[in-house]
Design a protein that fits this description.
Oligomer: heterodimer
Shape of chain A: rod-shaped
Radius of gyration of chain B: 31 Å
Radius of gyration of chain A: 50 Å
Distance between the termini of chain B: 85 Å
Shape of chain B: elongated
Order of helices and strands of chain A: HHHHHHHEEE
Helix content of chain B: 25-40%
Number of helices of chain B: 4
Number of strands of chain B: 11
Structural class of chain B: alpha+beta
Largest sheet of chain A: 2 strands, antiparallel
Largest interface: A-B, 33 and 38 residues
Helix content of chain A: 40-55%
Strand order of the largest sheet of chain B: 5-4-11-10
Strand order of the largest sheet of chain A: 2-3
Order of helices and strands of chain B: HEHEEHEHEEEEEEE
Strand content of chain A: 5-15%
Distance between the termini of chain A: 124 Å
Largest sheet of chain B: 4 strands, antiparallel
Chain lengths: ~170, ~230
């Protein structure tokens, strides 16, 4: 197919050149200049000789109006870009989700247990159980805490093997 | 520069590191471990080993020689000094101790039928009231004197007999260990053991050891201890 420059240089009113008409069928950009030179050129390029209703000029005018309108619509529709408010909203959402995720992770992960062994080893043993051992298999020993070191210490042994008449 | 001066310079250069090593040698020697053997005369070596572990460094070690009742301790010299002082205090001759044992029967009765508490049991009755015991009867009491490691045997009264061994006094807890305390009762000319236990009694503190079949038992036997040095 010939180029647009070649078409516009060679196109004349009433031309029937097959190459020019073929270019005219496939090129919208050259349609306008060609129709201004020869309104019948579009019909010749389609291969028809009929006259459209309302006349050729009215038909061509309507076609060109549609072409311009479509071009205008394409030019007016802005590219789909987010405004600064939406961008800020998206950023805030992402930040909130990240912080919430971190908080959940911090709350759910196991707490670090401080080693107590060293402290237990270093601290002197200040008290001992009153009953260190008791020879029975079914005994329960309850040691009650004294209010002070000089207070009476009570420890109870509950043992069903003991005689009833103690 | 002559050959002689070069040789002197070489010797000086070789001698400097040697002097430096000689200067640091005493410091290293202080950090190196020493070995010392402690033979115990009054206390068990295995118990002494447990006692000195808190004084040892991480690099130190101790081995027990049961045949000679001694410890072989390997540690830094400064730690060995502290361990030696602790061992001297620990391996003291058996100290005189004293144990008072009282036996009291306690019962839960109708408050209207409860008798007045005798004066010699008011110190115990006040404390046992929280266990809902309100009637008390003295069975007997005995006072035993001895030394650490010695055995004690005492008839308390009403057929009850206490047999035990004085354990060691523990200065850290100010308590006296009473091992293998066996309480028996003579019935129909037959001695029956009621209980056997090992106790840690704080010196100067009254300790009540109650014995009952279960917490709801209407009757319990109270053994009241008082240890002294």
């Amino acid at each position: 197919m010939i180029s647009c420059d070649v078409f516009r240089k060679r196109f004349t009113r009433g031309t029937s050149d097959a190459g020019l008409l073929e270019h005219l069928r496939g090129c919208d950009l050259c349609l306008g200049p060609a129709v201004e030179i020869d309104p019948d050129a579009m019909f010749r390029s389609l291969g028809g000789e009929m006259t459209p209703p309302g006349g050729v000029d009215a038909f061509v005018g309507e076609v060109m109006r549609q072409v311009r309108l479509r071009n205008t619509e394409t030019a007016i529709v802005p590219p789909r870009r987010l405004g600064w408010t939406r961008r800020a909203a998206v950023a805030a959402t992402i930040a909130a989700a990240t912080i919430a995720g971190l908080l959940v992770y911090q709350n759910n992960r196991p707490a670090v247990v401080q080693p107590r062994v060293a402290r237990a080893v270093l601290a002197p043993e200040m008290t001992r159980p009153v009953i260190e051992s008791y020879e029975s298999q079914n005994a329960t020993i309850v040691e009650m805490s004294a209010e002070s070191a000089s207070d009476v210490k009570i420890v109870m042994i509950f043992d069903e093997s003991l005689p009833v008449d103690l | 520069m002559t050959r002689r001066s070069l040789a002197v310079l070489l010797l000086v250069l070789l001698a400097v590191p040697g002097v430096a090593i000689a200067d640091t040698a005493p410091a290293d020697a202080e950090k190196t471990a020493s070995v010392r053997t402690f033979q115990l005369r009054h206390k068990d070596a295995d118990k002494a080993a447990a006692m000195i572990k808190a004084l040892m460094s991480a690099e130190g070690s101790v081995s027990i020689q049961p045949g000679t009742n001694s410890l072989v301790v390997t540690d830094r010299p400064e730690n060995l000094k502290n361990i030696a002082a602790a061992m001297l205090a620990y391996d003291a001759p058996p100290q005189p101790v004293q144990l008072t044992v009282r036996l009291i029967t306690a019962a839960r009765v109708d408050p209207a039928a409860a008798a007045a508490v005798a004066d010699d049991m008011k110190d115990v009755a006040g404390k046992l009231a929280m266990l809902r015991y309100n009637a008390f009867q003295s069975v007997g009491a005995a006072n035993v004197e001895g030394r650490e490691g010695e055995q004690g045997l005492v008839d308390i009264g009403n057929g009850y007999r206490a047999e035990f061994r004085f354990g060691e006094y523990d200065p850290a807890t100010d308590s006296l260990r009473v091992t293998d305390f066996k309480l028996s009762r003579l019935q129909n000319e037959q001695l029956t053991q009621l209980m056997k236990t090992t106790l840690n009694l704080k010196v100067g503190q009254m300790t009540i050891m109650g014995a009952a079949r279960d917490p709801e038992s209407a009757r319990a036997l109270m053994v009241v201890f008082a240890a002294k040095r």
